[in-house]
Design goal:
27 strands, four-stranded antiparallel beta sheet, about 350 residues
Length: about 350
């Protein structure tokens, strides 16, 4: 039996194309650069802005987050179980190892490291710890880790993937099975679904949605009244949106916000993955072909491409730099927006 891993699915390639039934020998590659779909893109980014690779040589980069106090970027190399730190004039070096699961790695765990990262108001690192199958908090000074939640209804999470911080200290996160060697068929899987959750400051875990096959990246609107979830589902490659009430919970079911089926069918590398939402409400969302700039109303304004699948992004430096985790590398590009 052939197992399609998360990285092969997100990165694209002939194996995925054949497995998904599309008769093509190799994935199309979006050329590196910035492509304008809508004139509104010019308010966000200059199409001539260079995309600079700042670090390379990793297995699969993810979860970038800018640390204002210290002026550096943290990013995950998930299969290497390491979080790296990049700082201007110093380059990148390991910061936290193991980033996720400690000790011997069970055969059933495919990705032992941390994935999505965020910084809370107290300057603590919040991580979706794929290997430990938990949401955790890390003290950046001591590297001490505290598990905040690892179960729902008494059952262990699958492999927590990405996080975003909400109002009042809440943490929204996704829990697909990508970190398990056999995915949904894994004997380690205790939940019979792949969920989107909210963790309250008191430790209570609320279920947001259990209907998605592959929930992945997650983001919030500037006012905290909309939750966005990327679906890395070959049958429904899309971003969904949920209207949130003042209690932080959905008012009704989610709905499709952006459809990436046309790009996926063209064979562009990647699937909907990580995202960040700017103060203006624009989404910067990875999907087939690279990172899309999306208007608050869901229009695709343009595409930032590195020639590889892009997993995630983060705003940093003087709030006008966009960092991109792209397959085995990390890149950056300048924006016009102040984030």
């Amino acid at each position: 039996m052939t197992t399609v891993t998360r990285r092969s699915v997100l990165a694209g390639g002939s194996a995925l194309l054949l497995a998904s039934g599309r008769a093509s020998a190799a994935a199309a590659v979006a050329p590196a650069g910035i492509t304008r779909f809508d004139p509104e893109l010019d308010q966000v980014i200059d199409v001539a802005a260079p995309i600079e690779t700042i670090a390379t040589g990793y297995r699969w980069t993810e979860g970038p987050v800018w640390i204002v106090q210290g002026g550096y970027l943290l990013f995950s190399d998930v299969p290497a179980n390491t979080v790296h730190r990049w700082k201007r004039r110093e380059g990148a070096r390991p910061f936290l190892h193991p980033s996720g699961l400690s000790g011997a790695i069970p055969a059933g765990i495919r990705e032992a490291g941390a994935n999505g990262l965020a910084i809370d108001p107290r300057g603590k690192l919040i991580m979706a710890d794929s290997g430990t199958r938990a949401i955790a908090r890390v003290d950046l000074a001591t590297r001490a880790k505290t598990i905040l939640a690892d179960r729902f209804d008494g059952k262990r999470f699958n492999s927590c993937n990405d996080v975003v911080l909400g109002r009042g200290g809440a943490i929204y996160f996704t829990d697909p099975p990508y970190g398990l060697a056999e995915g949904d068929a894994s004997p380690l899987k205790e939940l019979d679904f792949n969920g989107v959750f909210r963790l309250r400051p008191n430790g209570t875990v609320d279920l947001i949605d259990r209907s998605l096959r592959r929930p992945n990246g997650i983001g919030l609107s500037p006012k905290g009244d909309r939750l966005y979830v990327a679906c890395s589902d070959e049958a429904a490659p899309e971003i969904r949106v949920y209207d949130l009430g003042t209690d932080g919970l959905p008012r009704g079911a989610g709905r499709r916000f952006v459809d990436f089926t046309p790009e996926f069918r063209r064979g562009l590398p990647g699937l909907p993955d990580g995202m960040k939402v700017a103060r203006t409400g624009h989404l910067f969302a990875s999907a087939p072909g690279g990172l899309y700039v999306i208007a608050p109303d869901g229009r695709k304004l343009g595409l930032i491409a590195t020639g590889k699948a892009i997993s995630n992004c983060a705003f940093g430096e003087d709030r006008r730099t966009l960092f991109l985790t792209s397959s085995d590398s990390v890149a950056r590009v300048r924006l016009k927006l102040d984030n």
